[in-house]
Design brief:
conserved putative lor/sdh protein from methanococcus maripaludis s2 fold; Elongation Factor Tu (Ef-tu), domain 3; 6-stranded antiparallel β-sheet; rod-shaped
Length: 368
C-alpha cells in the first residue's frame, strides 16, 4: 500500500511539473482547460476506439505423454534368470531384435517335452508308412490306416502347440538359454531387466518400448475456460526447449469428466513427432484462439490503466480536454484489449503520456 501511494505521489509530482510549470506569466495563454501546456499536448498520442471482431486468446498448460496405442511393457509369462542383456535405456530397437537372454526351468521342461514329441513323431511317421503299405496290399483295413494317420496328427499338433508357446516366451538358443525379442520397433523408455536378476509373472515389466513418432499432449482445462475450448479447434503448442518454434495442431478430444485430484478437464492433442523433438513428460504451453465473438470495441492494451482494482482509460473528449473513463474488460489478444462497456466507437483514447494525465486529473478531482 505504501509503495502504491509513493508511486502515485511521484507520478502526480511529475505531471504537475510537466503540466503546471508553465501556467504563469507569458505562457498562461498556451494552456488547455485541464492545465495542460501546448508543448506537452503535442507529445500526447491518441487512437480511436474501433469496432472489431474479437480474437480471444487463451493460454493453457499441457504435458507430453506416450501414445498408449504405441507402447508395450513386457511382463514375462514364466520365471527365469536373466543371463545377459543386449540393450540400454534409451536405445532404439527394431521388432524381432534380441533384447536379453534368460535361463528358465519352465522353458527347459517345454524344450524337453518338444524333443520327446519330435521322437514320437518320427515313430508315428514310420508306423503310418508301414500302415499305408499294408493297406495297399489289403493286409489291414482302412480304419487301421486312419488310426495311424490320426496318431501322427495328434503328435504334430502337440509339437506345434509347444513351438507356439515357446515363441511367446522366447527363442531357443540351445544350452538351456532362451532369447526374448523386441515385440515392436521403438525406443527403450524403461528397463528393469539386469544380468543375474530373477523375473517372473509377478515382476515389474522387464522393459517398455514406445514408438515416439506420435505423442499425446494432455492439456488442463479449468471450469472458467470451458466456454473457450471445444473439440476440433486449432491450437498452437510451444515449448521452452524450442522457444522460436510453433507446432500447429488441433484438439482431438475433450473429456466430459473432471479429474478428481486436479479439478480440471483433460483435453487431448495427438501430435506427429517424426523428428522426435517432443519428449514424454515435457511441459508445453497451448495457445487457443477463438474468433467466434464479433463486434467488440477494441483498443491497444497500452491504453489501459489498472488502479483501485479497476481498469480505466484517459479519453480526449475534445482537443486538449481529457477525462478519466472506467471500462470493463471483455478479453484480450496479443496487444489488443476488447471493451464491453465504458467507451463508444470513434472516441479517442490516450496511448502516450496517459499516466501523467491520469495522475493530474485524479489529483484535481480529489482536491475538488
Amino acid at each position: 500500500m505504501t509503495n502504491n501511494i509513493i508511486s502515485k505521489i511521484v507520478l502526480a509530482g511529475i505531471a504537475a511539473v510537466v503540466i503546471c510549470s508553465c501556467n504563469s506569466g507569458k505562457n498562461a495563454e498556451n494552456t488547455t482547460k485541464n492545465g495542460i501546456t501546448q508543448a506537452f499536448l503535442e507529445k500526447v498520442k491518441t487512437v480511436k476506439v474501433v469496432l472489431s471482431n474479437q480474437k480471444q486468446e487463451l493460454i493453457l498448460t499441457g504435458r507430453v505423454e506416450y501414445d498408449p496405442d504405441k507402447i508395450i511393457s513386457y511382463v514375462p509369462l514364466i520365471s527365469g534368470v536373466i543371463d545377459r542383456t543386449h540393450f540400454s535405456l534409451g536405445d532404439k530397437v527394431q521388432k524381432g531384435q534380441a533384447l536379453f537372454d534368460m535361463r528358465s526351468t519352465e522353458l527347459s521342461a517345454l524344450l524337453s517335452e518338444k524333443i520327446s514329441l519330435e521322437a514320437e513323431e518320427k515313430v508315428a511317421e514310420r508306423e503310418l508308412k508301414t500302415a499305408q503299405s499294408m493297406f495297399d496290399d489289403n493286409i489291414i483295413s482302412e480304419k487301421e490306416l486312419l488310426e495311424a494317420k490320426g496318431k501322427l496328427k495328434q503328435v504334430q499338433a502337440a509339437i506345434n502347440k509347444i513351438k507356439s508357446d515357446m515363441s511367446v516366451y522366447g527363442t531357443d538358443k540351445g544350452n538351456g538359454i532362451f532369447t526374448v525379442n523386441a515385440p515392436m520397433s521403438g525406443y527403450i523408455v524403461s528397463k528393469k531387466a539386469l544380468s543375474g536378476s530373477t523375473i517372473s509373472l509377478e515382476s515389474e515389466p522387464a522393459f517398455t518400448i514406445a514408438d515416439l513418432t506420435t505423442v499425446w499432449v494432455t492439456v488442463n482445462v479449468y471450469a472458467s475456460n470451458l466456454r473457450f475450448v471445444r473439440e476440433g479447434m486449432a491450437v498452437e503448442v510451444t515449448t521452452l526447449s524450442y522457444p522460436d518454434e510453433v507446432f500447429y495442431c488441433k484438439i482431438n478430444s475433450l473429456s466430459q469428466v473432471f479429474d478428481p485430484e486436479e479439478k480440471v478437464l483433460k483435453a487431448r492433442i495427438v501430435m506427429n513427432n517424426t523428428d522426435l523433438k517432443l519428449k514424454p513428460e515435457m511441459s508445453v504451453m497451448v495457445t487457443l484462439k477463438d474468433e467466434s465473438i464479433v463486434n467488440a470495441l477494441a483498443i491497444p492494451s497500452d491504453a489501459l490503466i489498472f488502479d483501485d482494482d479497476q481498469y480505466v482509460v484517459v479519453v480526449e473528449e475534445t482537443a486538449g480536454n481529457f477525462v478519466i473513463r472506467e471500462v470493463v474488460l471483455q478479453g484480450h489478444s496479443n496487444k489488443i484489449s476488447y471493451i464491453s462497456s465504458g467507451l463508444s466507437e470513434g472516441e479517442n483514447v490516450v496511448i502516450r503520456n496517459q499516466l501523467l494525465i491520469y495522475s493530474e486529473l485524479k489529483e484535481l478531482t480529489t482536491n475538488h
